[in-house]
Specification:
single chain; alpha/beta; seven-stranded parallel beta sheet; 13 helices; 36% helix; 19% strand; binds (2S,3R,4R)-2,3,4,5-tetrahydroxy-N-oxo-pentanamide; binds cobalt (II) ion
């Protein structure tokens, strides 16, 4: 499988930078001078993927034919014997994205053309609205609707808890979840009865105030048991959510059988998944409505396309994870897929710190809460300014951890 032609991979570099957030970006170069970019960012464990790429993957790629995307995927997945896992799959994802980028540039076409061509004119996105009070959260949603968004996720501070996941007041772009402390994880507190008492009141207040003319989402962030999640889903049925996200820790796929049996509130899960096997039971048993894998963490475009094709057979639509810790390169990969697949649902789009725009320029753009893409830019359409990246050296940060009020660890 060694390549001798113009498409041979001749250089492999990993760019690490922290322009407000940390990003790991793979750069592949070919003999004929094409450059492909891939996102390998694993929030809070970035350097593990850097080592995996530099120490173990780069030597395997040099001299290979960059056009053999599917075969290189299998080579990196089956080859090491040790399969799956977030570090391995983020590394494979970045290689796959970079190869698709090169393939598109070689063909002179945007990647979505190679995936079957444009299936829609724009992608619906959802941003994050939040507030310390119900009133503030409603005002935050109203501001997003004013900007043109057709879907909004809402979180609000749970009364009685010192901090709550997803609250980032005062940050208009909402690229939050950065712990305030840079050296050690922030510690948050959790109490299920307080949360379950509050969320139905919040959602009812939102619909009472703003009506039903937009898609409303909420993220449970893996905090509930299956029974609690089933109860919450039933309780929220009158508010007709677009989706209720990550109600339970998703490594237990069959938990969703219980939840789905009890509620018609649509369920979404998958942002921490890293392969089609994590989705298999959820999709084929129709236990979920939206699959939330990100192209960056689930094996790149090649593997994500297979997940979405499987999902389509069961009426499950896409809702790719799109936080600001998926880089603009990974976001572009999500977006190219979103333009091409029949079962696109929605794209999360949190936005990026201003400094990230000094490093990454994209051919997609956000217009009135929807993503548009330039037909004329080949590949993934993201350029990475390596000199600019050097101005933002790596800055280690951790995601928060979450403890119950008795001090025991809970899921964040
Ligand atoms: O906690 O991206 O739906 N979005 C989320 C995110 C995740 C972070 C983890 O890195 O749940 O905010
Ligand atoms: Co989430």
């Amino acid at each position: 499988m060694t390549g001798h032609g113009s498409r041979t991979i001749t250089d492999v570099d990993v760019v690490v930078c922290s322009p407000g957030r940390s990003y790991v970006t793979l750069r592949l170069g070919t003999a004929d001078g094409l450059v492909g970019w891939g996102d390998a960012t694993l929030n809070g464990r970035e350097l593990a993927v850097v080592a995996y790429l530099r120490d173990h993957v780069a030597p395997l790629l040099l001299g290979k034919d960059s056009s053999r995307i599917g075969d290189l995927w299998q080579y990196l997945y089956r080859g090491p014997y040790w399969r799956r896992g977030p570090v391995t799959m983020a590394a494979i994802s970045s290689v796959d994205q970079a190869l698709w980028d090169i393939q598109g540039k070689a063909a002179g076409m945007p990647v979505f053309q190679l995936l079957g061509g444009r299936a829609r004119e724009r992608l619906m996105t959802y941003p994050h609205a939040s507030g310390h009070t119900v009133e503030d959260a409603i005002a935050s949603i109203a501001a997003k609707l004013e900007e043109g968004y057709a879907a909004v996720r809402v979180q609000a501070s749970v009364p009685g808890l010192p901090s709550t996941y997803g609250i980032h007041v005062g940050d208009s772009r909402d690229h939050a979840y950065e712990p305030a402390h840079t050296d050690l994880p922030d510690e948050e507190a959790w109490n299920t009865p307080l949360y379950l008492d509050f969320v139905p009141k919040l959602m009812k207040a939102v619909r009472d105030e703003l009506g039903y003319g937009f898609n409303l989402l909420h993220d449970g962030h893996h905090r509930l048991t299956p029974t609690e999640a089933a109860w919450l889903g039933k309780e929220l049925e009158p508010q007709r959510l677009f989706w209720l996200e990550d109600v339970t820790p998703a490594e237990d796929q069959s938990a969703f059988s219980l939840i789905k049996a009890h509620t018609t509130t649509p369920l979404a899960v998958g942002e921490v998944f890293n392969s089609i096997w994590d989705c298999q039971q959820l999709v084929t048993n129709r236990w979920i409505d939206y699959i939330r894998c990100a192209t960056t963490h689930t094996g790149g475009i090649t593997h994500m396309k297979r997940i979405l094709d499987l999902a389509d057979l069961y009426g499950v639509r896409s809702g790719c994870h799109g936080p600001s810790d998926v880089s603009p390169v990974g976001m572009a990969a999500n977006i190219h897929l979103g333009f091409a697949v029949p079962n696109f649902g929605v794209q999360e789009f949190m936005g990026y710190p201003d400094a990230a725009a000094e490093v990454f320029t994209t051919s997609y753009r956000l217009v009135s809460g929807h993503l548009e893409i330039d037909d004329t830019v080949p590949g993934l359409g993201v350029e990475v300014d390596v000199e600019a990246a050097e101005r933002f050296p790596y800055d280690r940060k951790y995601l928060p951890v979450n403890r119950r009020l008795d001090g025991s660890m809970h899921d964040w």
